[in-house]
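User: I'm writing a short report section on ligand binding and want a predicted complex to refer to. Could you take this sequence and calcium ion and write out the structure as tokens? A short remark afterwards would be nice.
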Amino acid sequence: MPAGETPTVATPTTTPTSVAAACVGDCNGDGVVTVAEIITGVNIALGSFAIDRCQAIDANGNSAVSINELIAAVNNLLRGCPQG
Ligand SMILES: [Ca+2]
Ligand SMILES: [Ca+2]
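Assistant: Sure. The structure tokens for the complex follow:
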């Protein structure tokens, strides 16, 4: 895979995670974000679940779920995951 595609977003990444999850919030990687997965994400954000319950919700890989990530997940729920 050519590494020609660089995101235009300027992210001061200290430790870039491999490739950002294709679909934020898609915990089980089936290409669809479900309400259950959103709820899992919310629980992680609240500290009820460990982050390893849904790595896909942690878009920036900082082992925490932010509001932005929850919103991204909800967008994927509503609009569907971005397909490559
Ligand atoms: Ca899913
Ligand atoms: Ca995060």
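A remark for your report: Residues 58-60, 62, 64-66, 69 surround calcium ion (ligand 2) (CB under 6 Å). The helical segments are 35-46, 67-79.
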